[in-house]
Specification:
The protein contains 15 helices and 20 strands. It is an alpha+beta fold and about 475 residues long. The strands form 5 sheets. It has a 5-stranded mixed sheet with strand order 2-1-5-3-4. A 5-stranded antiparallel sheet has the order 10-11-16-12-13. Helix 13 runs antiparallel to helix 14 and helix 14 packs antiparallel against helix 15. The termini are far apart.
């Protein structure tokens, strides 16, 4: 097997002798690329943002911004990385490098003060700069809205980047001032060629091994042999365990590039989403085809996290405050579990068995998530959190209602943050079905929803607050649906 290597700013670098748990951040800094900073070590601040060449949605390659502090460097074996130092281009002999357009705008518009966070902002901005479908954006009145510049720059691209001193106005000004890449731009031209293909990896150091197999079948056989293995895709959860809790694993198995886990199919009866597709890939490929997911995605952490996080990972951790389970419960989704002997399909409502526990065995992987069609027409995702974006929810509520001729024929409601597992609001569903969709019904059923689950007091919210938010969410849903009809 070829020695593990990663291409950084156009130059190949061996990964050895770094320990198997080494993050991309630490690997880069050991090589003197100190523009990549550690701020929080858990994917919250974006000081460690870098660009990775990934399969594109509109072009062969997309430049994708990820948190270098979370990803094991062994996961990028054979892959291509650009850091903030690699964005500038060489000038004429004897002259300094030519700043990248994003770097130049940040400099001339005062987007940097202490400079600690600046390289991370620049890399996240560069990923949006190279987004192929970025184009001039205008709202209904003909001007730019608050979250998009006239150049089509989506400020959500910076939702995972934190600045503690400059303030965001000059950073926003820089983002809204960048133009389109020129034909001579090497990173723009790079998008026209395919990204590096995944390579089989078995990187062993210090009694630990990082493994990436070529196929799902090989991976499942390995998991049967190594039930103690930690399975990772984007490492947005495991990376935090490594950094903050000093967790180490004897065997880490990567599944993010397995072709069998990266399919997305929309058929007559179901939408099937591969468990290793990132949330950003799902969002862009579905393009609003599942409205409830389209409402969920912008509220799920930050763009940096969504560029690595997967549905398989979010369901695999079994967290009661994960944002995708309530939405998938409301959509009556099921998970397809695969092991070395075959597959089984489990309704998501029967998947969770306890706090961070599920019916999935150690030798099984989530291969895909299936959402049955047709979809109910009335959907909404309400996330109650202390920050508008990039925060953990205190309560999450997902609605999917089939309202015909003014009557609720079917109601499905998923809840997060109010029990040891994500749950369906079964009592509320039963109370709604068969009743007219009116203000009186919403008022009468809201107390039922308020009493669902077993909310608790913690540092995010009190039990009483969580219960109150459950009840208010149904009233909010009714108000919004009637406003949409009247407008």
């Amino acid at each position: 097997m070829v020695a593990a290597r990663v291409t950084v700013n156009g130059e190949e670098a061996p990964i050895a002798p770094a320990p198997a748990h080494t993050t991309v951040l630490d690997f880069l800094r050991e090589r003197g690329l100190t523009g990549t900073k550690e701020g929080c070590a858990e994917g919250e601040c974006g000081a460690c943002s870098i660009l990775v060449a990934r399969p594109g949605v509109d072009k062969p390659t997309d430049w994708v911004a990820v948190n270098a502090c979370l990803v094991p460097v062994a996961a990028l074996d054979g892959q291509e990385v650009v850091t903030s130092e690699g964005l500038a281009t060489a000038g004429a002999p004897g002259t300094p490098p030519v700043l990248h357009p994003v770097q130049k705008e940040m400099a001339v518009r005062g987007g940097s003060q202490c400079g600690y966070c600046t390289p991370g902002f620049v890399c996240s901005m560069a990923a949006e700069y190279y987004r192929p479908d970025r184009c001039a954006h205008a709202d209904a009145e003909g001007g730019s809205d608050a979250e998009h510049g006239p150049n089509g720059f989506d400020l959500h691209a910076l939702s995972g980047n934190l600045c503690r001193c400059t303030g965001y106005r000059p950073i926003r000004d820089a983002a809204f001032a960048v133009g389109a890449p020129t034909e001579e731009d090497p990173l723009a031209r790079r998008r026209e060629q395919a990204p590096p293909a995944p390579v089989a990896t078995e990187y062993a150091q210090d009694d630990s091994v990082f493994v990436r197999k070529d196929t799902l079948a090989e991976t499942l056989r390995l998991l049967r042999e190594r039930p103690d293995a930690v399975v990772v895709a984007g490492s947005t959860d495991w990376g935090v365990e490594v950094n903050i809790r000093s967790r180490r694993a004897g065997c880490v198995v990567a599944v993010d590039r397995l072709p069998e886990l990266r399919e997305l199919r929309v058929g007559p009866d179901a939408v099937e989403i591969g468990a290793a597709l990132t949330l950003t890939e799902i969002e862009r490929r579905l393009d609003g085809e599942v409205p409830l997911l389209a409402e969920l995605f912008p509220q799920f952490a930050s763009r940096l996290i969504r560029n690595g996080a997967t549905l398989g990972g979010n369901l695999g951790t079994g967290s009661p405050i994960g944002d995708s389970p309530p939405a998938l419960l409301a959509l009556e989704a099921s998970v397809v579990l695969a092991d070395a002997d075959g597959e089984r399909e489990v309704p998501l409502a029967e998947y969770f068995t306890g706090y961070r526990q599920s019916v999935r065995r150690p030798d099984e992987l989530i291969r895909s998530v299936r959402i049955p069609l047709p979809l109910s027409p009335v959907t909404a995702f309400h996330k109650i959190a202390k920050r508008r974006f990039d925060d953990i929810s205190s309560v999450a509520v997902a609605f999917s209602l089939d309202v015909r001729d003014g009557v609720v024929h079917k109601a499905r409601i998923g809840l997060g943050g109010v029990a040891a597992t994500p749950i369906r609001a079964l009592a509320t569903e039963a109370a709604l079905e068969g009743r007219p969709w009116t203000a009186e019904t919403a008022e009468a059923v809201a107390p039922v929803l308020r009493d669902e689950g077993t909310p608790m007091d913690d540092h995010r919210a009190s039990a009483a607050y969580r219960s109150a938010m459950l009840g208010r969410s149904l009233l909010k849903l009714y108000t919004r649906t009637t406003e949409a009809v009247s407008s």
